[in-house]
Amino acid sequence: MKLTLTRNIVAGLLLSVGLGAPSIASDPPRSSEAIVRAYTEAFNHHDVDAMLALAHAEIEWLSIDGSKAAVETSGKEALRTSMASYFGGNPTTKSVIEAVMADGPFIVVRERAEWTSKDGPRAQRSVAVYELRDGLIRRVWYYPAYR
């Protein structure tokens, strides 16, 4: 069931950006933007397996704070553990891509995170830079959030 949902999410997103409905196993998304959008859609469904299907084996997630970059996760299994924990503590979270700029292997997105807290609906924005290699997300640099 989960694999079917994963394939449907990715295929539906690809259809919406005009890329057709490829076989996930043999024909991954073609454009870098489509890959990042499919990753975000999987995030919004809290589908860690779909996220990992779009991630490079050596994916790194880095948080930027001023002049420092901290590696939050390194490798698919670390990302799986981190996302499962995150979704467990944030069951209503989702992300909306508000703007995209693509240049070669880099995709810059401005996103709005939304969730419901005990005080009601909440939101914040951030910028992330995705690096793609071999059609997979290799690195993500996540910048500090702002309201």
Explain this structure.
The chain has 147 residues and is α+β, with helices and mostly antiparallel strands. Helices cover 33% and strands 41% of the residues. The chain has four helices and six strands; from the N terminus they run H-H-H-E-E-H-E-E-E-E. A six-stranded mixed sheet has the order 2-1-6-5-4-3. A hairpin with a 2-residue loop joins strand 1 and strand 2 (68-74). The longest helix has 15 residues, at 2-16.
Outline type: globular
Q: Report the portion of residues in β strands.
A: 35-45%
- Radius of gyration (Å): 15 Å
Average pLDDT value? 86
Number of helices: 4
The computed structural class is: alpha+beta
Helices and strands, in N-to-C order? Answer: HHHEEHEEEE
How can the largest sheet be summarized?
Answer: 6 strands, mixed
Q: Which strand order does the major sheet show?
A: 2-1-6-5-4-3
Q: Brief description of this entry?
A:
With 147 residues, this protein is an alpha+beta fold. It contains 4 helices and 6 strands; from the N terminus they run H-H-H-E-E-H-E-E-E-E. Mean pLDDT is 86; it is low at 1-26.
Give the key terms.
single chain, 147 residues, alpha+beta, 6-stranded mixed beta sheet, 4 helices, 41% strand, globular, disordered N terminus
Could you outline the blueprint of secondary structure elements for this entry?
Elements (H helix, E strand, L loop, with lengths): L1 H15 L15 H13 L3 H6 L1 E11 L2 E7 L1 H14 L4 E10 L2 E12 L2 E14 L2 E7 L5
Parallel strand pairs: 1-6
Antiparallel strand pairs: 1-2, 3-4, 4-5, 5-6
